[in-house]
Amino acid sequence: MRQTDIPVLISGGGPVGLATAVELAHHGVRSMVVEPRESVSWLRPRAKTTSARSMELLRRWGLAETLRARSPLAVSWSDAAVFTTGLLGREITRIGGCFGLDLTGSDLAAEPGQQVPQPIVEEVLREAAGDALLTGWRVAGLREDADGVTVDLTSAAGDTREVRAAYVVGCDGARSVTREAIGARYEGRQDARPNFNVVFRAPGLADRVPHGPAVHYWVLNPAQPGMLGRLDLEDLWWCIAQGVPAAGTDPVRLVRNLVGADVEVEILATDPWTARMLLADRYAGGRVFLAGDAAHQNPPYGGHGFNTGIGDAVNIGWKLAAVLSGWAPASLLTSYEAERRPVAAATIEAAAANMATLAPELADPALMGSEPEFERVRPAVAEAVRRTKDSEFHSLDLVLGYTYDGSPVVAGGCGERLPHRWLAPGESLYDRLGPAFSLVGDLSSPEAKVLVERAAELGVPLREVDLPDAPGTLALVRPDQHVAWRSSAPGDAAHALDLAVGRPS
């Protein structure tokens, strides 16, 4: 048996890789995150929506308030998407309550969503990961054996080194070396339509916008359809033009067309891309696991991609920690793919459905005509917007409502996220949960005693959370806040914990 240098090596230090490291550290497990980029770039902000569910998970790590404090757009700033003829043009309609940004104080969630550019998310997670992050290196290859994984690293200067890890998590994106190493492959398709992103600075533009604050401004101009939004409350903006190829595109003219005026524009970055609906045919080798874009890719509409990856990170992170800490067998790890791959498949389907109707499909030439022409077609366009885009902006059933029902480590009919509630102003039920398993509800019930005793026998950390106002109800809650068993589920409490940690019956 060869000695391992590190319990878990993580290939890729984007938000998913960093989140995996933070989750492992949350359970006291060391990791190494190998990332080629020395610093985080602002030139391609990519994800801009951190979902309510991701914010709940950041709250577990004590990072939710840090991220909100760093975000240039306070959650109270806006929760609206505005549909217009141009950023400075006529308003057609608007949709409120977008992306769970209106959930402050709601019993539905411990945290509302947050509009924040991905670079800030990465910076916060880098700080939390600390010395687990190794920059300037990349994973060049890896080889599994029965006792661990040998990983080949290469630096930007061409230096090489070999690291031995007990497990590897591949968070290395679309061109994943990890995915190739375990022989997994993407299944799915690519959208034919080209898209063109621009990050730009426009001094004074915000003062001219007649529509008030919004997280998205959708431009339904047939000559230049697309969308824009703010990256800060100064002069930094992003835009996406749909159906626009990179070749021959003048980004200044594109921005001005979306704005509807010849404003002063400084182009900071451009990013041509096409949407992909891809899912890895498997998520794991023996000791190697895929997460984030290495496992799945979906269109950005709805803001689900990076958030799905955060869910991956927490799921594989707590399970690896349980195995490495000795209170769960390695068989627990087989549940990772069974739980997370269906969530990614549902997310891809939802995002692809959102992509079916974008600004080009909603645009109507009459919107650009005289005031009477605009008013004639505006109601019909507004109705089409609400009918086709509501699910894109209101997707809490997917964000908060996905379950692991059917998982091999969840009792029948369970697997949902523990329903949230506030226990006192600012105190969430989730704040009472332990870092490992929690027993929540009526602790005077006979099942509670059985579970507490079994946890002691197995060495499973278990926090008891008594809810006197919930007589006769009891839930065994996993580290990721999902319910592994409840007192109304089939089967007895004696076997509930064994099942939840992957012990064969």
Descriptive overview:
InterPro entries: FAD-bd, FAD/NAD-bd_sf, RIFMO-like. This is FAD-dependent monooxygenase. One of its GO terms (molecular function) is monooxygenase activity. Pfam families: FAD_binding_3, Rng_hyd_C. With 505 residues, this protein is α/β, with parallel strands linked by helices. Among the domains are: 6-73 and 111-187 and 277-354, FAD/NAD(P)-binding domain (3-Layer(bba) Sandwich); 422-500, Glutaredoxin. The protein has helices at residues 15-26, 52-60, 64-70, 118-129, 177-181, 205-208, 251-259, 305-324, 335-355, 359-362, 371-393, 396-399, 429-432, 446-458, 493-500, and strands at residues 6-11, 31-35, 49-50, 81-84, 91-95, 114-115, 133-135, 137-144, 149-155, 160-170, 186-201, 216-219, 226-230, 236-242, 266-280, 288-290, 296-297, 422-424, 427-428, 437-441, 462-466, 474-477, 483-486. The chain has an 8-stranded mixed β-sheet, with helices on both faces. Strands 1, 2, 7, 8, 9, 10 and 16 form a 7-stranded mixed β-sheet that branches. The protein has a 4-stranded mixed β-sheet with strand order 21-20-22-23, with helices on one face. The mean pLDDT is 96.
- What is the spatial order of strands in the main beta sheet? 5-4-12-13-14-11-15-17
**Percent range of helical residues:** 25-40%
Q: Average the pLDDT over all residues and give the rounded result.
A: 96
According to DSSP, the number of beta strands is 23
Quickly count the helices.
Answer: 15
Stretches with pLDDT under 50, minimum 5 residues: none
Distance between the termini: 30 Å
Strand residue percentage:
25-35%
CATH fold name of the domain at 6-73 and 111-187 and 277-354: FAD/NAD(P)-binding domain
The CATH superfamily of the domain at 6-73 and 111-187 and 277-354 appears as FAD/NAD(P)-binding domain
Oligomer description: single chain
Provide the CATH top-level class of the domain at 6-73 and 111-187 and 277-354: Alpha Beta
* Major pleated sheet: 8 strands, mixed
> CATH architecture of the domain at 6-73 and 111-187 and 277-354, please?
3-Layer(bba) Sandwich
